[in-house]
Structure formats: structure tokens, C-alpha cells
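This follows on from our talk about sequence and fold. Can you supply me with one protein entry, sequence and fold together? Could you add the entry underneath, on a fresh line?
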Amino acid sequence: MKINTALILCAGYGKRLNPLTLDAPKPLLEINNVTMLEKCIQLIKNLGIKKILINTFYLKDHFPKFLKNKNFDIDIEILEDGKEILDTGGGILNLINHSNENDFIIFNPDTLWAKEHLTEIEEMEEFYFSKNLNNILLLVNKNLSFDKNLKGDFNLENNLIDKELDKNYVFTGCQILSKKLFLNQTIKKFSISKIWYELIDTRNLYGYESKQNFYHLTNLEIFKKLKGL
């Protein structure tokens, strides 16, 4: 079993990076002359995935121009959220409704994705299919975060996620989800965390631990520090 379609979530406003994001969407900000989105697409290509769906809303006209200029050697389709921004859950649902696939790998491009993530994500995918799961999140210990102000989101033990105890783990922005999780959802504005928390309540939210340093474009201060690396 293999995932054939990746989703990249590009609709957000990126307000914590104002004034940079007044003129450019957050995924198109550059670190060392390479946009965050390009780093994400490169990782997806290295995973051997054939198709990418991107959702857009804020400054949406920037994305077709960027993709045309770059001419990535992979099938990329842009789908707009519509008249209102759909947040992560609604955005994902809108994307998967345009695909016949059942399983999707989903990326937030505000993480600095690199080739070092490749093996871990391949292992996470193998775990997902071998255990016949419908979800798995790539988490990292907050001690590995470049941004030391990031609070932990979850606890992780034996690949099960919960929100009790110390919350030492941060969501990296990569997850694999099954279309089955969205059967009772309609396309509207909602956060994917709504589905995560429902899964936690039944002890059915799974995680895979990344051992890589975690670079996340949290705010303007972190952006400036990342550019100085």
C-alpha cells in the first residue's frame, strides 16, 4: 500500500508574520532563497507521490504564478476554499472531495521540510498501513524545537496520542488521514483538531515520533532567526 496524493494547506493569513504576509502568502516566504512551499513540494516528490492538491484563500492569485514559474515536475492542482476560509478541517475535506483516493498525506508548509524527514515519513506511512490505521500524526519532542516558546500539544506513548500528563510533543505539520474520518462532516469552517480530539476521546489518535530538529515559521522573530542560520 502506498499514498499517491499529498495535500498542502496554503489558505491561511499568516498574521503573526505581518507585515511580510501583507504582500506575500506565508508559504511563499523564502528562507535562504527557497520558499517554504518549494521545500514542501520537493519532499513530496522525494516520497514518490504522484499528485499534489493545494488549497488557497488568502492572496490566492500568487500561487498559480509561482507554480507556473517553477514548473515543478509533478501533477499539482490548486483548489480554492471558496467565499470563506475553511480552516484546516474544512480545507482538507474540500480537497479530499476532489480525489478518488482513500488515504492522504497532509503537510503544513510553515514547517521547514528537508530531506532528513524523508525516512521518518516513509516509516510512518509503513506503520499506518501495516497497523490498518485511519490516522497518524508526525510529532516531535518540544526540546527539538528551534522556537523554544512553543508549548507541547500532546503526550505520546506507544504510538498513542493523548492530552494528559506533560504534553511534551509538538505536531510537526505532517499527518496521514483516511477519507473515512470525514464521512459525517460537511464542507464548512472547522479545525482538524475537532477530529483529533474526538479520536483522543476514544483512544484512537496515533502518533509517530520525529527525531529531527523542528524548524517552524511561528512568527516574525523566528523568521528573522531562521534567515540568519
Notes: The chain has one domain: 5-227. Helices lie at 36-46, 62-70, 87-96, 118-130, 193-201, 220-227. The chain has a mean pLDDT of 96.
